[in-house]
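Suppose you are handed a protein chain with no further information: no name, no annotation, nothing but its sequence. What can you learn? This example shows the usual starting point.
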Amino acid sequence: MYVHSGIVKKSLPFGWSSLLFLAIIGITTWQFTQGKEVYLKAWLSRALLHTAWVRTQASGRIVKPWPWANTWPLGRIYVPRLNMEQIILFNNSNNILSLAISHANSTVLPGYMGNSVINIHRNIYVSFLKHLKPNDKIVLESLNNGRWHYTVANIYKVDRTTIEFIKPTLDRRLTLISCYPCKSRDERWRYVVVAKETERVAF
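A reasonable first move is to predict its three-dimensional structure. Written in structure tokens, the prediction is:
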């Protein structure tokens, strides 16, 4: 507060330059997010999913990523070559697929003996699945069954009516399935990555 010509005036907590700077930041943020809601949503969901997975591991209890979610983390896969991770969620539904990879309920849980099928949305195919190559290592942290190392054995592009990749197996494997090609409305094709167990690592 200061006095000028007998009039008491209050000083503003921010000068005009600060207010102008904040206005520019606000407008820039608004413009940046226009048309990019999907990416913003995906970024936020990844943070929430990672937090839920860490809390689930620490507590040994199911922790939902957000209060109204009908899903929770079942595991985490990590690809060392790509330095990429994905949280595997329970509940194979379209709402979940748009946010994260999810376990096909009709198959064995990740990390258990048999064929565990993981469904992947086309957006995650772009950022994750299509970068996998034969012989890539995948580390799986299972919720209740330890940590396992897998190796990508084969990659296929098949007709959607092909069912051999979702059948039960006698070995321990991960089968990652996505629509293909990701930028097409043609739902005929599927992209399939098969990874087989190489080693179990104790926690």
